[in-house]
Specification:
- This protein has 285 residues and is an alpha/beta fold.
- It has 2 domains: 138 residues, HUPs (Rossmann fold); 129 residues, 3-Layer(aba) Sandwich (Rossmann fold).
- The protein has 9 helices and 10 strands.
- A 10-stranded mixed beta sheet has the order 3-2-1-4-5-10-9-6-7-8, sandwiched between helices.
- α9 links the parallel β9 and β10.
- α3 packs parallel to α4.
- The relative contact order is 0.14.
Length: 285
C-alpha cells in the first residue's frame, strides 16, 4: 500500500482519515494523495455583484490554501510525502477518477462529512464509494481515536473467493503487527444442523489455508452464530476488542447488503471501529 488516496472536505471526520493515512505512510514510506472536490454553487444563488467566476475562484483558492496547509503540516511534522490536488465535480465521481489517476492502492475516507450529519457511519457518499470503487476503501468513523490496531476481524463467507482478495487486510495486519481473527457467520434462525457443520468446516479450512500463506501473522478462527449478522458482529467487536473490521463487498449479495443505506444506519449506532471494504472481483446476483 504505497499510494494512499484521502478525500477531504476539511471536516473533523476527514481529519480522522488523514491521521490514519499518516500512520500507515510512516510505517511503509507511502505517498498520500490528498484531494478535495470543489462544489460550485449554481449562479442563480449568487448575488448580482458577485459573478460566478469570482465565486468559483474564491472557493478554489480557499480550498487550495487549506490543502497546502495540511500538506506542509504533515510533511514537516510527520516526514510523510503528500501530494495535493483540487478537482471540480461531484465528490463520488472525483474520488473514482482520482483513485484511477493516481493508481491508488487504498482509499481512506471519513464517514461523516459536513453535509451528512445524520449518516453517522457510511453516509451516502461513503456507501456509494464502497459499492463503486475498484480498490479497497477504509472507512474511519468520527468516534474513532487513533491507536495502533492490535486485532483485525475478517468476516468472510466464501473461502475460495476470500483468500486471494484478503491481501490488503493482511498487508495492513503485517504492517501493524496485528493479530487476525477469521470469522464466518451462521444465522441460527435460518440454518439447520447441516448448514452449521458446513460453515464450521469452512472456517477451519479458511484458517488452515491462510496460516500457510501468511505465516508471519498470528491467525485465529471463530465460527459466529447469531440471529442478526450486524448485531452479532458488533457484539463480537466489543467483546474481543477488535480494532478493524474487514469484509468483501458485492453490489448484490448477503454480505454486500451490509453496506446498503438502511443496514449501515443500524451499524452506525454501535460500530466505532474502522471498516476495510474490499471489492469482490465480480458482482453477485
Amino acid at each position: 500500500m504505497n499510494r494512499i488516496l484521502v478525500p477531504t472536505d476539511f471536516s473533523p471526520n476527514a481529519d480522522r482519515a488523514i491521521d490514519y493515512a499518516v500512520q500507515i505512510a510512516k510505517l511503509n514510506q507511502a505517498t498520500i494523495y490528498l484531494i478535495h472536490a470543489c462544489d460550485h454553487l449554481d449562479p442563480l444563488y449568487l448575488e448580482n455583484t458577485f459573478s460566478e467566476r469570482e465565486y468559483n475562484l474564491a472557493i478554489t483558492d480557499a480550498a487550495f490554501d487549506k490543502l497546502e496547509m495540511l500538506r506542509r503540516s504533515i510533511e514537516e511534522t510527520e516526514q510523510v510525502l503528500v501530494n495535493i490536488q483540487l478537482y471540480n465535480g461531484p465528490v463520488l465521481d472525483t474520488i473514482l477518477v482520482a483513485a484511477e489517476e493516481h493508481q491508488a492502492d487504498l482509499v481512506i475516507m471519513g464517514t461523516l462529512g459536513i453535509t451528512g450529519l445524520r449518516d453517522k457511519l457510511f453516509g451516502s457518499k461513503t456507501a456509494a464509494l464502497i459499492s463503486s470503487c475498484k480498490v479497497p476503501v477504509l472507512a474511519i468513523p468520527l468516534e474513532y481515536d487513533w491507536s495502533k490496531p492490535a486485532r483485525f476481524l475478517l468476516a468472510i463467507k466464501d473461502v475460495d473467493e476470500a483468500i486471494p482478495l484478503l491481501e490488503p487486510a493482511f498487508d495492513l495486519a503485517a504492517l501493524f503487527n496485528a493479530e487476525v481473527l477469521i470469522t464466518i457467520f451462521t444465522d441460527e434462525d435460518d440454518a439447520g444442523t447441516l448448514d452449521y457443520l458446513v460453515d464450521e468446516r469452512v472456517v477451519i479450512r479458511a484458517g488452515e489455508k491462510l496460516k500457510k500463506q501468511h505465516n508471519l501473522v498470528v491467525i485465529k478462527t471463530e465460527h459466529l452464530l447469531g440471529r442478526h449478522f450486524e448485531d452479532s458482529i458488533n457484539e463480537y467487536i466489543a467483546k474481543n476488542e477488535i480494532d478493524l473490521l474487514a469484509m468483501i463487498t458485492h453490489k448484490r449479495s448477503r454480505i454486500g447488503n451490509l453496506f446498503n443505506h438502511s443496514l449501515t444506519r443500524k451499524m452506525s449506532y454501535h460500530t466505532r471501529v474502522p471498516v476495510l471494504a474490499i471489492p469482490a472481483r465480480k458482482p453477485h446476483s
